[in-house]
Amino acid sequence: QEMASGPSVDPASLQSLLQEALMNTGHVADAAIIKKKDGSTRVTTPGFRISDSELAALRESFKDSAYAREHAISVNETLYHCVRADESAIYAKEGKKGTIVCQTGQYLIIATYRPGMHASICAEAAENLADFLRDKNK
Predict the structure, then answer these.
(1) C-alpha–C-alpha distance, residues 5 and 86, integer Å
(2) Closest CA to 99 of 138, 132, 57, 36
(3) What is the pLDDT of residues 50-93, one digit of tens each?
(4) N or C: which end of the chain has fewer CB within 10 A?
């Protein structure tokens, strides 16, 4: 039992957070919330999947931001080139599409955008959701 972090958020709450905080912006193409501890996908948009190898690379990128900048980031079998990486977020893009991955105590929040969507709105939505979860010690 993880006393310091409190009970986990139930999947229905995470699904509504994913929908309201990310998808409803109109600037997030796909998204997922993954539990860091076991790598399980808690919620995701239909057809969006993060493989074990992609998850391992994302974890390594958060541990070592130089790793993120030196290697392409793969999300849902799409390669992106890192443009920013620190201990809380990774921003990566390929042409006019990209991904933002935010880390909280318990979760990875992954959001993607495609041509016609604004990267800044996608990033702000992902960062805001991460801040919300961090405020709840998640």
Answers:
(1) 22
(2) 57
(3) 999 999 999 999 999 899 889 889 999 999 999 999 999 999 99
(4) N
